Amino acid sequence: MSTHWHVLGAGSLGSLWATRLARAGLPVKLILRDAARLAAYEAAGGLTLVEQGQEQRFAIAAETLDADTPIERLLVACKAYDAEAAVTRLASRLTPGADLLLLQNGLGSQDAVAARVPHARCLFASSTEGAFRDGDWRVVFAGHGFTWLGDVAHPQPPYWLDDLTLAGIPHEWNTQILTRLWRKLALNCAINPLTVLYDCRNGGLLEHHCEVATLCAELAELLECCGQPAAALDLPSEVERVIQATAANYSSMYQDVAQGRRTEIGYLLGYACAAAARHHLNLPHLSRLYNRLVAHLTAKGLPST
Ligand code: NAP
């Protein structure tokens, strides 16, 4: 019998992982925030995965944060701003040598989580898969992609990557996971805030080419200064390529703001500006962008952290 996967957070990505693991016959348990959410989940009869128009429901077992079953492997699938507090509530349930897989976008939340569970192994992930909820306990697999996983402390992959292969989750072990996370953060900082401020799809930034190029130059300087020169390589051309390739899409930050949801700004542009300040690096365009975004979110009554 393989080790149980506990999945913390049955949102878009957590449900996408949980349903695929369950479909492969692997033991999975969801961890939901409280008794009310657990009752709602049980009333729905499971999690539904919608893939290429086909729906399939999986009656995956679930429990609340306050359960006392031991946890050997935890997939953390909350938003970056919820991860530390949620994992802290589970820390006493982790078995010695437990593994945590952190799916959060951006940077900052991974270190905060790892500091709360010093005896566990924390793996970081960066994913290009896309999913969204079209209802409670329902997830739509919107964009096939890839997930890179790595451990900044140990280069050896865990044996259970085989579970991901069995579940059909495309993945690769990456010994430079921080470089990948920094690169993704830089792409996000160059594109997402401007789509919010200009109220446009990604392609709308083609009209703001100079502004994007200036931001890329400052972001590349930051990456170099933070010891991530590989993440800075050809950044402007990749940003341009992503804008072209995703011209018709609305960025994740745009969608969060449009739907009145909290953004992950504190772990993206906020993290970048804090890192620049730590290094006494003056990046005027990046910090102006941050101030404009904070003002915009505040005016909409949304948190700016
Ligand atoms: P999401 O749909 O908002 O799901 C987050 C889930 O976490 C929600 O179901 C929420 O519960 C749950 N949660 C929060 N605090 C909790 C707690 N204390 N205990 C139990 N559950 C808790 O978010 P997402 O889109 O899956 O994103 C998760 C992370 O993956 C983010 O960092 C995101 O940037 C990253 N990511 C997402 C995608 C994507 O396509 N969605 C792609 C790449 C990366 P409730 O339902 O009760 O609110």
Automatic annotation (TrEMBL):
SUPFAM superfamilies, alphabetized: 6-phosphogluconate dehydrogenase C-terminal domain-like, NAD(P)-binding Rossmann-fold domains
Record organism: Pseudomonas batumici
Lineage, top ranks: Bacteria, Pseudomonadati, Pseudomonadota, Gammaproteobacteria, Pseudomonadales
Start and end residues of each Ketopantoate reductase C-terminal domain: 177-293
Ketopantoate reductase N-terminal domain boundaries: 5-152
Entry protein name: 2-dehydropantoate 2-reductase
InterPro entries: 6-PGluconate_DH-like_C_sf (IPR008927), 6PGD_dom2 (IPR013328), ApbA (IPR003710), Ketopantoate_reductase (IPR050838), KPA_reductase (IPR013752), KPR_N (IPR013332), NAD(P)-bd_dom_sf (IPR036291)
MF GO annotations: 2-dehydropantoate 2-reductase activity; NADP binding
Functional note: Catalyzes the NADPH-dependent reduction of ketopantoate into pantoic acid.
Keyword field contains Transport: no
BP terms from Gene Ontology: pantothenate biosynthetic process
Protein keywords: NADP, Oxidoreductase, Pantothenate biosynthesis
Any one of the GO CC terms: cytoplasm
Family statement drawn from the similarity comment of this UniProt entry: Belongs to the ketopantoate reductase family.
Protein's pathway: Cofactor biosynthesis; (R)-pantothenate biosynthesis; (R)-pantoate from 3-methyl-2-oxobutanoate: step 2/2
E.C. number: 1.1.1.169
Pfam family, one: ApbA
Catalytic activity, reaction form: (R)-pantoate + NADP(+) = 2-dehydropantoate + NADPH + H(+)
